[in-house]
Amino acid sequence: MKNNPEITRRGFVSAGGAALAAATAPLGAAAQKRLRVALVGTGSRGLHWGADLVANYADVVELVGLCDINSKRASAAKEMMRATCPTFVDFDRMIKETSPDTVLVTSTDSAHYIHIIRAMELGRDVITEKPMCIDEEQLRAILDAERKFGRKLTVAFNARHSPEAKKIKELLLEKAIGEVVSVDYQEYLDTDHGASYFRRWHRLKQYSGTLTCTKSCHHFDQVNWWLDDVPVEVVAWGDLKFYGKNGPFRHTRCRGCPHRERCQFYVDITKNQRSMQLYVGAESEDGYFIDGCVFRQDINIQDTFSIITRYANGARLTYTANTFMPYEGQEIGINGTKGRIDYNAYSAPGYRDRQLRLTRSFGKSEVFELKRRAGGHGGSDPSVRDLILRDTSAPDPLGLKAGSKAGAYSSLIGIAAYRSMERGGQTVRIQDLVKL
Prior knowledge:
Number of strands: 15
Largest sheet: 9 strands, mixed
Structural class: alpha/beta
Shape: globular
Strand order of the largest sheet: 14-13-12-11-7-10-9-8-15
């Protein structure tokens, strides 16, 4: 079977699949006060969300339904989440039978807009994983639906929630470095994390919108939020320099690969119980596998790219990403009229370092020692979930909450970037893509 993560995306919404598990018992009066959440897309990210909701948010959230085009994956995810809700392959039926207050969208990036819009049509608020969308048409459709149906859309941008990101926002609000002139942002993905995008559906532009959308959009949101500004034009260059057609040999996937003894990217998925249960055990339904060869000829996204973004108030972002580095890391510099903020983080076998520094012009450097919270992405995941699920009425002095406008502008930088690459590095104006 063709290795297609979506099969037919619209079929996911309207197919006549039946619920695969019995509904839960009637709820008591107290339980009804909890936010009723239905989740669509039970892959790795959906599993992460669902397991956390069940384990840590059961006092404020009731997970009422799980939906996935792959019924075996939905059932596996339910077991791994330790959830008690029913599972579905029919999105509309899940909404009708479970009556959620909010739909949590963690499906394939290219399908986010389908589930966002349909949930709004059915009268539900939406929380979506990033990116909100992967092209201009999808964005216009989402914004039209939000206006038409008047529902609330929240985008879960966890990159805003690291202690370093919050401290940078505080410093910029204090004008600690004066007016921001430019931002230098270097992203390094190592040969484990970086390669993972080229094994899975992300390797195909039609599903991910390239890494400028599926990966970098939350970095773009981070900068938009730090600057409290909006992008106006983007120019970008990118290439596929290492993965895909550049490999010395290739196979369909690691299992059964004749090159396994000499390939440094060989992974034995059978040693990963989580992947075996969630993915390998569900392959018979749709043929999708996550141990694909990183040198497959069909890979059509860039593995290295540079992007320059100009903002309405004149600041510039220079962003570069490389996905085959010997270590994982970030180097961020924010340049102002009165100083500079530096944030550097590196992770390699046997080595880990992280530092946030403020250097004022004609002054001393100050290094901040920040405590990181337990939880996914260095504590960022529980922070964003607390904000949108538990502390919904708490003050938000840093403006951490992100809605459709933030989702739109972060996606638009990624979309403009790959459009610029398609056009040989031509400048792309944001308002020429979607008028906001």
